[in-house]
């Protein structure tokens, strides 16, 4: 096995990142863009200890599930991994990705888990309500887009098949205004320039749009003119915000946020609720599927009106509100201050008097409340891709709520966490939900009940 070598390969299954997996002389080979059942001729691009990677030179036996990706930069971008696959097959593949993770980390117990078919979308395109495109200077031109996969080449994206049309259109217009006003985008090589990232979030169900400029400094030339021209782009732009990020960390936002025009927040509707979202507040990127996801969380919580619920990693309180009518009490926490402010506002707006929101980690507050004699009946968690902290899992195993409803965006960390929680909990079922069509990402709702 050596880089540049060309070999035939039969694709046996899909990996967790959506790549095809085959075996050559007992060596595992990962091939992006390949589909289970295909015979492909590939060139090895990477050879490492225990595995290799390759790119397709020719598909010799084509899967009936293969289709032509509509995105012109699909092969370069890496933002989507499954556009080459028909949608019904994508849904089956995502369930299989969860199954593979369970088999790896839960092992024998995986076979006993009720893993249900993936809930998909009627229209799996143009669903993302937020874009965060890196802005970079190339001569006199301002570029904005995403980095090509496994490289530092920025793809200047004018349109995107999975982004809401408003986010792509506004980003394109904003970068042209920057160019005309000679406001420089950031240049990583020289560490100069003003605008690092252009963030656009639109309310899919309200039309309200917010534009955020993440900048290297607070004050810069033509700032007022930039704001006036952006305001004039569209009446749906109700919020223009600046976020100052002076350090070089990989995080998008810095700590200082300034409202330049309009409101601090935009509004989005989910079902009967409308939520106010500030620039840094977390909110689901696919509102259409979020309704299905939250209904699955509500179904798993099995509320009778008598339960006390803790909504860990609560964000702006969306899950708590969704569950509030069926619960005796809701307590939520998040480490982002703005999220807690928004959560309190949202609860007050809807007259939800049984909800309390505090800033801090879930494990800190759960332990504080336990010492005060409070143990919730249901804990609902929606952690980041890194999954649950070990300290949080340890806390669950100490306080022992009757039910845990675990919403996951990463099958690997879900399976690892379940392996620990299954010491005291029974996994009743896992319901995958396709929040991100055309990508390999899959969310799921898992119901765990305390073993008797």
Automatic annotation (TrEMBL):
Ranges for the TRAM domain?
A: 1-58
Family named by the database record: Belongs to the class I-like SAM-binding methyltransferase superfamily. RNA M5U methyltransferase family.
| Keyword annotations | 4Fe-4S, Iron, Iron-sulfur, Metal-binding, Methyltransferase, S-adenosyl-L-methionine, Transferase
Q: Which domain of life is it from?
A: Bacteria
InterPro entries membership: MeTrfase_TrmA_AS, MeTrfase_TrmA_CS, NA-bd_OB-fold, SAM-dependent_MTases_sf, TRAM_dom, U5_MeTrfase_fam
PROSITE patterns, alphabetized = SAM_MT_RNA_M5U, TRAM, TRMA_1, TRMA_2
* Catalytic-site annotation from UniProt: 409
Biological-process GO terms, alphabetical: rRNA base methylation
GO MF terms listed in the record are:
4 iron, 4 sulfur cluster binding; rRNA (uridine-C5-)-methyltransferase activity
- Annotated protein name in UniProt: RNA methyltransferase
- What is the species listed in this Swiss-Prot or TrEMBL entry? Candidatus Kurthia intestinigallinarum
> What's one Pfam family the UniProt record gives for this protein?
TRAM
Instruction: Provide the binding site for S-adenosyl-L-methionine.
Output: 284, 313, 334, 382
């Amino acid at each position: 096995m050596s880089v540049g070598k060309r070999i035939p390969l039969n694709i046996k299954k899909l990996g967790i990142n959506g790549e095809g997996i085959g075996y050559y002389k007992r060596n595992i080979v990962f091939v992006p863009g390949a589909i289970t059942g295909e015979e492909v001729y590939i060139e090895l691009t990477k050879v490492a200890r225990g595995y290799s990677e390759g790119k397709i030179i020719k598909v010799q036996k084509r899967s009936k599930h293969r289709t032509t990706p509509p995105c012109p930069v699909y092969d370069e971008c890496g933002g989507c991994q499954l556009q080459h696959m028909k949608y019904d097959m994508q849904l089956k593949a995502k369930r299989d990705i969860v199954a593979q993770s369970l088999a790896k980390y839960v092992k024998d117990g995986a076979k006993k888990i009720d893993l249900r078919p993936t809930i998909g979308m009627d229209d799996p395109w143009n669903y993302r309500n937020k874009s965060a495109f890196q802005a970079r200077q190339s001569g006199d031109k301002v570029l904005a887009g995403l980095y090509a996969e496994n490289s530092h080449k920025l793809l200047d994206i004018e349109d995107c098949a999975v982004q809401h049309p408003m986010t792509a259109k506004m980003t394109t217009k904003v970068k042209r205004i920057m160019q005309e006003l000679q406001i420089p985008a950031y240049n990583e090589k020289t560490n100069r320039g003003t605008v690092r990232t252009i963030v656009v979030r639109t309310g899919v169900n309200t039309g309200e749009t917010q534009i955020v400029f993440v900048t290297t400094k607070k004050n810069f030339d033509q700032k007022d003119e930039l704001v006036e021209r952006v305001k004039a782009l569209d009446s749906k732009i109700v919020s223009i915000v600046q976020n100052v990020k002076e350090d070089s960390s990989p995080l998008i936002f810095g700590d200082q946020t300034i409202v330049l025009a309009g409101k601090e927040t935009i509004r989005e509707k989910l079902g009967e609720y409308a939520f106010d979202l500030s620039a840094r507040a977390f909110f689901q990127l696919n509102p259409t599927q979020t309704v299905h996801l939250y209904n699955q969380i509500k179904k798993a919580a099995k509320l009778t009106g008598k339960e006390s619920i803790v909504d860990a990693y609560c964000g702006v309180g969306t899950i708590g509100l969704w569950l509030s009518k069926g619960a005796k009490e809701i307590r939520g926490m998040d480490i982002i201050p703005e999220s807690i402010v928004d959560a309190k506002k949202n609860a007050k707006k809807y007259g939800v008097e049984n909800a309390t929101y505090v800033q801090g980690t879930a494990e800190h507050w759960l332990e504080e409340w336990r010492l005060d004699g409070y143990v919730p009946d249901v804990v609902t968690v929606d952690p980041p891709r890194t999954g649950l902290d070990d300290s949080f899992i340890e806390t669950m195993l100490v306080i022992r709520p009757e039910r845990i409803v675990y919403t996951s965006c990463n099958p690997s960390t879900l399976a690892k966490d379940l392996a620990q929680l299954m010491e005291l909990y029974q996994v009743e079922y896992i319901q995958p939900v396709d929040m991100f069509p055309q990508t390999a990402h899959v969310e799921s709702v898992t119901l765990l009940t305390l073993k008797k």
